[in-house]
Each structure stands twice: as C-alpha cells, then as structure tokens.
Amino acid sequence: MMSLKTRFLLGIGCAAGMSAAVAHDLWVEPEAGGYQLLYGHHPRVSHEGMRQIAYAPDIVKSVVCLDAAGGRHPAKTGGGSPVKIEGDCAVLYVLTSSGYWTKTTAGTKNLKKTEAASPLGSWQSFESVKHIARWGSGAANPLATPLEIVPAENPLALKDGDKLTLRVLANGQPVADATVSYDGKPRGQTGADGTLNVRVKHGGLQLIQASTRTPYAGPEADEVVHTTALTFALGSDK
Q: Where is the signal peptide (predicted)?
C-alpha cells in the first residue's frame, strides 16, 4: 500500500459537452487494504470544495490491478457507494460508464437519444482513471484499454519543471489529435504517433487527462465520448 495521502481524480463533465456548473470528477483515494472510488467535486479542479455524490456501483465496468512487473492481481470490488477496491496495485486502472446522455430543450438527461423528447445532441460516456504508484513494465506498457495515457519514462522520478513525454492509446493503438489537459487546462493535441510533451508545474499529485470523440454507430447516440486520466505523485519513486 502506498504511503502518500494523495487523491486521484478525473474530470468527466466538460468532455461530454456539459457546463462547468454540472461537471463532476471521478477519483480514487487510498485507504487501508486498497482504494475507494469517489465521485463528485474535487477541490483540485473545482472551486466549490469537496462534495461527494452517491452513484450506482454498476457504473464500474472493469478494474485492472497490476504489480510493478505487469502481473495481474485480483482486485475485489464492493457493491456499495463509494465502491471499495481491495488490492495492492503498482498500477490501478478503473473504467466506468455513466451510460447515455442527451441534451434536450428541457436540459441534459441520462437517457438514450431514442428515449428523450426533443433531443438536441446525444453521447455515450466512458470515463477512466489510471494511477501509477510504482514504476515498472506494468506502468510502461499499454493495457490495451479503450483509452489510456502511457508515460514514455518513469514519471515518479520527475522534478517540478521537468517535461514528460506521453502517449495516448486506444486499444493499444496511437490516437492522433486527442486533446490533453494538465490540471484541467488544455495543453495541446497529440501528434500522428499519439505523443505529446507536458511540463509538470508543481510537486505532489499530477493530473493529466485526455479525451476523444468518435461517431456512434446507431440511433441511440451521436457520439462516443471517452475521457481518461493518468495520475501519479512526484517524489514517490522510493
């Protein structure tokens, strides 16, 4: 279990076209024997202060827990809210989906486009967060998940002001033109090889996000929106 009392979060609302007023964050917080998956407002990206929101446990679609060498370990999840994740993970990846969202003349609804009255636009939303606690091949190699950020070097050994080369991958393949943000602020788009350099600007928790939009094949939505985050803490390479 890691000793740093850091929190790992993912801002998910704005990438789906929602206003900042209703944007929420998804993050993982360490606790004895594992982690808990929290949802709501995190003070790192919100000026409204910490506020947790209950969610249905079935939004969690998959959990990957790796040791430093890349070996997979069981990660038991609880059925309550917040979801508890038991396991000592060098790399922890959690994929969630809040389902379909449709913007209508009466507001944004958690419905498919085919279920909503007066739809203006619709998307299927996927959100994920990957935390690196210990460096090794498990962190250096892609997980072949729907969307992930993979560092090209050990991010735990960086110092304030260093640059980090990142790769944004979808199912193990490079993603061009993905928007990458640092602490919630856009820093550029990936090149044809899926890479981008990001400069870390402070110590402690680092939050790097990427998002993609792709057409949805069906009448239920217009787009599929994937948002992912890479989190780690400077100075934790012990």
A: 1-23
